[in-house]
Design brief:
alpha/beta; 32% helix; 453 residues; 6-stranded antiparallel β-sheet; FAD/NAD(P)-binding domain; single chain; Elongation Factor Tu (Ef-tu), domain 3
């Protein structure tokens, strides 16, 4: 499909082409739309799908329905606070369809996708092209937000542009089970240390139950990698069976850690615990937290049925692992998400090396602000280096070549205060970041990213 067009061919304002209506692409399109910039948004689904997607909804959440911690004393929480300050469209939608998840922001996955899709399609100056962009458009301003699993055609086009992509990692998905098939009498609702309102369903395990589960997990069959695929996982997406091979203590100090969860029926902390989180507002589906896996489907049923309460669990979605591609961002991208060798070409989303839902939204926001500047004949603005957004974009684009790995939002990216206790330092970092973002918003934005122009 030809995707070349002269700016202003059917509008006095140059159009921006956005490839991909995932988290980053949808955010970028909405921000550009609010700035008064017309957008052509290409989305191949549902006509052409990926190994990970199941719907044709925009901004589909593939792995989990949780967008991570929501308090500003965590990296992901601070990133959300900054995006809310700037006027992120997708964060507003997420807040509207959130479901209980303790200190985290979790959403009704289907409601989120439908709301984002409806919002994008309703914008008068966004033209949705329900077709696959097979090559990188040669338009003056383009944002490539094709996700970490691009189609073969666009992947080949990117690879040709960059001289070979070269880097990748695997992303894993946790199973989802039918709530009505769970034996909730075997579990209890609680958050660790009683910090929330009892949003997680916890199934405790005795030592014998844990030993039987661990033995089954260690002997379970997995889906083999193809011949050309080397297994490399990002730490926060590590399959549960891979963690188990590091030793049983890894799970007991990881996703199955019982600390802070006292069983109200016994008054004791169990040997191990499995947490489930509501997948939708109605609470009819639950996600096995931290149980992303590459086990075969029959093995998932066999092994996970050993968890107390899941003996007769009906799996609505099995866990899986898929290959995610990402660029060598330090070599190819500026912190504005602009390609170093072509002005006006931007990348956004996980393909840039940001890891996580909110991080993808943030990169889409940055790419949109940068693209709007190019349309106006200006240089892209620099996001504050002491903000989480600015620090994350700088990190993924300035690391030494050859050691680059995807990164999510964390306080280690921010300038570190020299005085005070850890909590006090974090508080100062967060306050400084939010102050810088507010100042950036006042200086740079002459539009409201949430407005429908």
């Amino acid at each position: 499909m030809a995707t070349s067009r002269s700016p202003g061919a059917d509008n006095s304002v140059a159009r921006v082409t956005v490839v991909g209506a995932g988290l980053a692409g949808s955010e970028a399109a909405l921000v550009l739309s609010a700035s008064g910039t017309p957008v052509d948004l290409f989305e191949m689904r549902p006509g052409v799908s990926s190994p990970a997607h199941q719907t044709g909804l925009f901004a589909e959440l593939v792995c989990s329905n949780s967008l991570g911690a929501d308090r500003a004393d965590s990296g992901k929480g601070l990133l959300k606070a900054e995006l809310r300050t700037l006027g992120s469209n997708l964060l507003r939608v997420a807040d509207q369809v959130r479901v209980p998840a303790g200190k985290a922001l979790a959403v009704d996955r289907e409601a989120f996708g439908k709301s984002v899709t409806g919002t994008v399609r309703a914008r008068r100056n966004i033209r949705v092209v329900d077709a696959e962009a097979r090559t990188i458009p040669d338009d003056p301003v383009v944002i490539i937000a094709c996700g970490p699993i691009p189609s073969e055609e666009i992947s080949g086009s990117i690879s040709t542009l960059l001289g070979g992509m070269g880097l990748y990692f695997y992303d894993a998905i946790s199973p989802i089970v039918d709530a009505s098939s769970l034996d909730t009498h075997r579990g209890f609702f609680a958050d660790r240390y009683g910090s929330g309102s009892g949003d997680y369903l916890n199934f405790p395990m005795t030592r014998p139950e844990w030993e039987a589960f661990f033995a089954a997990l260690m002997s379970a069959r997995v889906v083999p990698a193809r011949e050309f695929e080397e297994e490399r996982y990002f730490e926060s997406c590590m399959p549960v069976e891979v963690l188990a091979r590091r030793g049983e203590e890894t799970l007991l100090f990881g996703p199955m850690r019982p600390v802070g969860l006292r069983d109200p029926r016994t008054g004791r902390i169990p040997h191990a615990v499995v947490q489930l989180r509501r997948e939708n507002e109605a609470g009819t589906m639950f996600n096995l937290v931290g149980f992303q896996t590459k086990l075969t489907y029959p093995e998932q049923e066999r092994v996970f049925s050993l968890i107390p309460g899941l003996g007769r669990a009906k799996f609505l979605r099995y866990g899986s692992v898929h290959r995610n591609s990402f660029l060598d961002a330090p070599r190819h991208l500026h912190s504005s998400m602009e390609y170093r060798n072509r002005k006006g070409l931007f990348f956004a989303g996980q393909i840039t090396g940001v890891e996580g839902y909110v991080e993808s939204i943030a990169s889409g926001f940055v790419a949109a602000v940068s693209a709007a500047a190019r349309v106006a004949g200006k240089e892209p603005p620099e996001f504050p280096e002491d903000s989480m957004i600015g620090a994350l974009m700088r990190h993924i684009t300035t690391l030494p070549r050859g050691s680059f790995q995807p990164m999510n939002a964390n306080f280690g990216l921010l300038p570190l205060p020299t005085e005070g206790r850890k909590r006090e330092r974090k508080e100062r970092q967060a306050n400084r970041a939010l102050s810088s973002i507010e100042d950036f918003r006042r200086r740079v934005f002459n539009f409201n990213p949430l407005c429908d122009t």
